[in-house]
Amino acid sequence: MFKKLRNIARTRFAGAVLYWMARLYCVTLRLRIENENEWSNYLEQGGKVLLCLWHQQMLLAVRFFPKYKKYQPSVMTSRSLDGDISTRIIEAGGIAAVRGSSSRGGIAALKEMIQRIKQYRLGAHILDGPRGPAGVAKLGSLAIANGANAVIIPTVIIADRAWYLHSWDRFMIPKPFARVTIKFLPKIELPPVMNNAEYENQRKRLEMIMQPYLHL
Fold first, then answer.
1. Which one, 45, 82, 89, 195, has the greatest CB density within 10 A?
2. Do 99 and 79 touch, CB atoms closer than 8 A?
3. Cα-based torsion angle of the residue sequence 165, 211, 151, 190 in order, rounded to the nearest 10 degrees
4. So what CATH class is 2-213?
5. What is the pTM (predicted TM-score) of this model?
6. 141 to 3, 178, 206: CA distances (angstroms)
7. 28-73 pLDDT, tens digit each
8. Ranges of each domain in the chain
């Protein structure tokens, strides 16, 4: 029965329903956005931007991303059943899903993300997704940003009251009427040329910046 429900959730219609359910739920939250102008002005002036966030905190993306639909933002999703479901949800919100992960189709997906950001100038990446470990930043965000000549914007979501699911990422669902802050940290500009050691240094830097905002 559970498998049948998950298969139904893979359909476009179900994705649209789940998307609007999430949007309606988010309306109950008292939302505050901090430091958006720095990167949005950079984007408006022709810059390329990659927003990076933890898998745990991705629910509020359905509330935020539609305002940037004109840039046709893209995000990577896995080629799994869960990836099928999340793809339908984000596509209902006007976000392009690029299918692939470290285990399946990752290289092709990274190349597509790079090309889309070069063309449309805005994308997002889940640092520790789709399977974790939670709070460990992978190299994909750096490869995308470096290939597209984009700045990285560490993005964190803070709720004063929330449920945390018993999943690998302790997925966060803010409680109704919670105070929620979407906070954009200062942009990270990568060196134009990076070797393996520099990639690892930048990965650790990004991880250290964002880990304090993770609830595990």
1. 89
2. yes
3. -140
4. alpha beta
5. 0.92
6. 32, 30, 10
7. 999 999 999 999 999 999 999 999 999 999 998 888 888 898 999 9
8. 2-213
